[in-house]
Amino acid sequence: MPKLTKRIVDALQHDQERDVFIWDTEVRGFGVRVKPSGTKTFLIQYRNAERRTRRFVIGQYGVLTVEFARDLARKKLASVVDGGDPSAERRAAREGMTVAQICDWYLEEAEAGRLLGRNRRPIKASSVAGDRSRIEQHIKPLIGTRVVSHLRLADIERLQADIAAGKTARTRRTGRGGQTSGGAGVAARAISTLRSLLNHARRLGLIEQSPANGVRVIASEKLKRRLSAGEIRHLGKIMMQMEREGEHPTGLAAIRAMLLTGFRRMEVLGMRKEWIEPEGNCVAFPDTKSGPQLRAAGDAAIAHLLSQGQRSPSPFVFPADWGEGHFIGVVRVLDRVCARAGLEDVTPHTLRHTFASIAASLGFSELTISGLLGHAPRGVTQRYVHLDTALVIAADQVASEVARLLDGGEVGSVREMKLMRSKMLVQVPV
């Protein structure tokens, strides 16, 4: 048989019982196969490094010309000489794990506690829940079917742009939750989740490399909203009015607790009575975002928590209206209160910022405020910050000022408060 040409390939007849092969004389291993259906495809036949015979389909005749197929055949056969195996490589690519499969693996392993996160500890259940939400709502719908090995950095950054633009946004359904929006913050968190799970998969050998390495995550603008002294007084006034009108008492109490302590929303809502230690002016959390912590709480805060805890036999300080769990509706209560008060952009985290702002106005250092808020240690010096007398005094000063404002007190003299704090610190043993 001479060199393959268009005329020769056009003249080939099919056999209804078997495949027909015609091989080129110019490029050894290059040929054309005619299926019983009459379909003609170009292919190469070679022996891999293990001396096993393999076939690799280049493409269909009609889509590819004979000359173009011959050029592709030369390149593929040249790779075989260098130890390559085109057939195995294509099969591996087709059978490679998809993004959805990697995501499912990550969720299964993380929920079982087999993956270590921050501080070399198993990833927290709350973090995994947030990751699951971002995976199901953003990552899977956009790139779940893509093979990880085919993804490039540009694909990851395009995913981030699509999420930020609201491509996966959904309108709110009736009932709880149901709203998914776009924006820089949502996109940044989704990409951070994807980058983290891909790095876990790479580290454990499921994939060779992570396509998300080097991605530039959108910088989201940090929330700076905090309540002024006047806004705190106004909020306290509205809360008292709404309490008399029948607003949810547990929700109002939780709002007050967040302002008096600076604790995170779920730290307040999930607080158990047994964790409160009045003698030490603290709450002993067995687990927080930064691990187990003793968190200082002022007298006003401790009194409020103890009073709230006496309202129900539930083990939770802020119990649910039904069932054995804790209260979860504080965001809705806060929204109603702020709407009534005419205050905009107020979230539970705003109350935490407000606590820190009051502490700063009283002259407490950034290190002390960080200790009050329970931030994870970021330096050698900060590791020595613990629940000492000075930290308790700071918590008491801030809680006292917040309580005074909530109860309608006028803004006190910051100078007088600082002087009082200085006198109290002098009595602290070194």
TrEMBL record:
Entry keyword Hydrolase: no
Domain of life of the source: Bacteria
Keyword annotations of the record: DNA integration, DNA recombination, DNA-binding
InterPro entries, A to Z: CB, DNA_brk_join_enz, Integrase-like_cat_sf, Integrase_catalytic, Integrase_DNA-bd_sf, Integrase_DNA_bind_dom, Integrase_recombinase_N, Phage_Integrase
Residue ranges occupied by any Core-binding (CB) domain in the UniProt entry: 97-202
Domain Tyr recombinase residue range list: 222-397
The keyword NAD is assigned to this record: no
PROSITE patterns registered for this protein in UniProt: CB, TYR_RECOMBINASE
Gene3D superfamilies documented for this protein: 1.10.150.130, Integrase, DNA-binding domain, Intergrase catalytic core
Entry-linked Pfam families: Arm-DNA-bind_3 (PF13356), Phage_integrase (PF00589)
The family this protein is said to belong to: Belongs to the 'phage' integrase family.
Protein name stated in the entry: Site-specific integrase
UniProt organism field: Chelativorans salis
Taxonomic lineage from the root: Bacteria, Pseudomonadati, Pseudomonadota, Alphaproteobacteria, Hyphomicrobiales
